[in-house]
Design a protein that fits this description.
- The chain is built from 4 helices and 7 strands; from the N terminus they run βααββββββαα.
- The protein has a 7-stranded antiparallel sheet.
- The longest helix has 30 residues.
- The radius of gyration is 17 Å and the shape is globular.
- The termini are far apart.
- 18% of the residues are buried.
Length: 184
């Protein structure tokens, strides 16, 4: 069982600046929702934890990620694998990204993300909720990355929205409208 996601958007910075920021994971990790801790290993891999609220469930994935292909400053590919001991869920992620100049100070970003739920009992029970959660987390990543460049790195602009706000967005995705409001 797996899921595929694609996003395409622009940020207000030249391609070289965007590439440098994305490669500096210590700083760019603020744009990735749920990243709790990470350490750069001597071999260049990243080890860490990512906390995700999936409806009423909290998952705390521990794993590693690494860049497997890089063509600076145009293209990259990364792979990750993580395990949540509470739900006993094992996932893999393959991300391919492209940066394209859209003028002197604008960069187009496109990425494809393939998430494999290798052994995920939680996914069998809550696939629609997991898919909606992942959509909301992707949207939050795009929002944070755009905010970082629009404000020239102001940490307040990249600050996380509350988990309640993201949960509300997930519920709207699932039910198609805010709770308590009539459809007509």
């Amino acid at each position: 069982m797996g899921m595929k996601f694609e996003r395409e958007f622009e940020v207000e910075a030249d391609r070289g600046t965007v590439w440098e920021f994305l490669m500096d994971f210590e700083n760019s990790s603020r744009c990735f929702p749920g990243v709790d801790t990470f350490v750069v290993q001597p071999d260049g891999t990243f080890a860490g934890t990512v906390g995700i609220d999936i409806g009423p469930l909290k998952a705390e994935f521990e794993g590693e990620a690494r860049f497997v292909e890089q063509e600076p400053p145009e293209r990259l590919r990364a792979e990750a694998r993580a395990y949540d001991p509470i739900s006993r869920s094992d996932v893999s992620v393959d991300v391919q990204g492209w940066l394209e100049e859209h003028g002197a100070d604008r960069t187009g970003i496109r990425y494809l993300m393939d998430i494999g739920l290798i052994d995920a009992p939680m996914a069998q029970m809550a696939y629609p909720l997991i898919k909606s959660t992942t959509e909301a987390l992707n949207d939050e990543f795009v929002r944070r990355l755009q905010a970082h460049f629009a404000t020239h790195g102001d940490p307040q602009a990249v600050a996380s929205r509350s988990r309640w706000r993201i949960l509300l967005e997930i519920l709207v995705r699932i039910f198609g409208r805010p709770l308590g409001r009539s459809a007509g």
